[in-house]
Amino acid sequence: MRIASAAVLALLSYLFGTMLADCENQKIKAIDSLVDLLSYMRRRIYGERMPLCRVFAEYRNEYLEGVGFLSVLRGQRSGFQRLWNSAIGLINADEEILRELYIFGDALGTLELEEQIKRIDICLEALRQARDEAAKAMPQKKKSIKTVCLLIGLLTAIILL
Amino acid sequence: MKSTRDILFRYLPIRISRAVNMLPEDIFERLTEIRLRKNMPISVLANGENLTLDENGRLCPMHSAIQASDGEIKECIMRLTEGSRYTCDEFISQGFIPLAEGGRAGVCGRRDGKNGFAEISSVAIRLHRFIPHAAMPLMCEFASNGIRGTLVCSPPAMGKTTFLKSAAYMLSSGTHLAPKRVCIADERCEIAPGIARGLCDILSGMPKAPAITMLTRTMSPEIIICDEISASECEAVIEAQSTGVCLIASAHCNGISSLLKRGRMKELVYSGIFPLCVTLGEGYAATVCETEAFL
To answer: In terms of C-beta density within 10 A (0-12 exposed, 13-18 middle, 19 or more buried), how is residue B291 classed?
Structure first.
């Protein structure tokens, strides 16, 4: 009975580790979605001078809609700095990425075209770089998380035995 | 058409809109302009009079008047540009931001090295009212003697744009005369909003001179309406008029006599393009007269 419980505990720990590793996947998905959003913003702003209220109303993205990011930005006519920074709070991302996004949000909609595009490009560059780094480190990170969780489970099981 | 209060709350920061909203009703009804200056008194223009107010909307001397902070000026610009300043770069470089309801907000401050402003320190929001029958005296004249080129003269903020809006509306919708094909050369996007009905074609955001030429060549209008004609547009206007299209335009001046002291404008008046002249007085009162009487 004890051995069976220990095995279940170890298995549950491993499954918990797998879930945590999936969260890391979500972080990459979040960055991908933000890169897509910023690329879309760049196209519509540079090409058509489209106001932000229309940009956010017309943009579609499953992840950003799912976490409520776009709902915060939609239906508003101004104040996109504040709204952007509130929406960022809903994103699952590393601190460094969040910092970049807050810096971008601080001037969103308050700049002339040239400067606004420059800010988008800077943010895009930072996000793409972070995405590449995260993707590169991902397999190792996932493996580590799963291993650590499994070890904790095993250790707990041994102690309980 | 949005009311003055809608415009107020849409474009002004809360503290300022609350103060303006609490102005005595008779003054509020006659508001034509709200002027914000960074760290200086906010003033309103009612019946041609500059008035300063306190936080509770009471008229007060300048030293105790409500002032706009740097943040409030920025917020006002943000609201005027709908949170997307880049959409208004071209207009801001010319010193104004068009309002969605018609009218405009004039801006000034410190220019940057390029074409815009490094800092905007003053905003003057012009409230244009749509008074459908403001141009009735002109319509009566047209009904008696036929439609002729007309120059609407008055100093700033006396209702020239309101008069032109009404003329565009009445002529294109056939309110007093049979409907006409009216084209509006609306460089500052001020005339067209709110009156787009009837036989009205609008070319907005384009400088008046090429707009008049383009409309004349491509839209076969019976009447062209444009705002605030200046010396630089004289040539295009004279050229366009060789086709026989009637032009109704406005100009900043105290009357035809003062216009005749300005070189190229004098040429324009003498060219016979504007056989009629409308002068505007208090409360949008319009007087129609023959230009010939001044020549």
So the answer is: buried
Domain with CATH 3.30.450 in chain B: 4-126
A-B CB pairs within 8 A amount to: 51
* A51 CB within 8 Å of a chain B CB: yes
Q: Which helix (H) or strand (E) holds A102?
A: helix A95-106
Hey, which CATH number is domain B4-126, 3.30.450, 2.170.120, 3.40.50, 3.30.310? 3.30.450
Per-residue pLDDT of chain B (295 residues; tens, 9 = 90+): 557 778 778 899 999 999 999 999 999 988 889 999 999 999 999 888 899 999 999 999 999 999 999 999 999 999 999 999 999 998 999 899 988 877 789 999 998 877 788 899 999 998 877 888 889 999 999 999 999 999 999 888 788 888 999 999 999 988 888 999 999 998 888 888 777 567 889 998 888 888 888 898 899 899 999 988 888 788 777 776 677 789 999 988 877 788 888 777 888 888 888 899 999 887 778 889 898 877 7
Closest chain B residue to A81, measured at CA: B83
Closest-CA residue to B232 (of B208, B261, B203):
B208
Distances (CA, A) of B117 to A108, A110, B81, B240: 17, 12, 14, 35
- Whole-angstrom distance, CA of residue B67 vs CA of residue B37: 7
Which chain A residue has the Cα nearest residue B91? A112
Query: Measured between CB atoms, which of A76, A78, A113 is closest to B89?
Result: A113
Domain boundaries, chain A: 2-160
Mutation site for A-interface testing, chosen from B12, B80, B81, B86 by largest number of A Cβ within 10 Å: B86
| Top CATH class, B136-294 | alpha beta
Note whether B2 contacts A: Cβ–Cβ < 8 A.
Answer: no
Rg (CA), chain B: 20
Location of structure tokens 């809608």: B6
The residues near B11 (Cβ < 8 Å, ≥ 6 apart) are B76, B79, B80, B99, B105, B125
The H or E element spanning position B183 is strand B182-186
Residues B149, B224: Cα–Cα separation, whole Å: 9
Please provide the size of chain B in residues. Answer: 295
Residue B197: its pLDDT value, please?
67
The overall pTM is greater than 0.80 = no
Query: And the tokens for B285?
Result: 């009162």
Residues carrying CATH 3.40.50.300, chain B: 136-294
The CA distance from B80 to the nearest CA of chain A, in Å, is 9
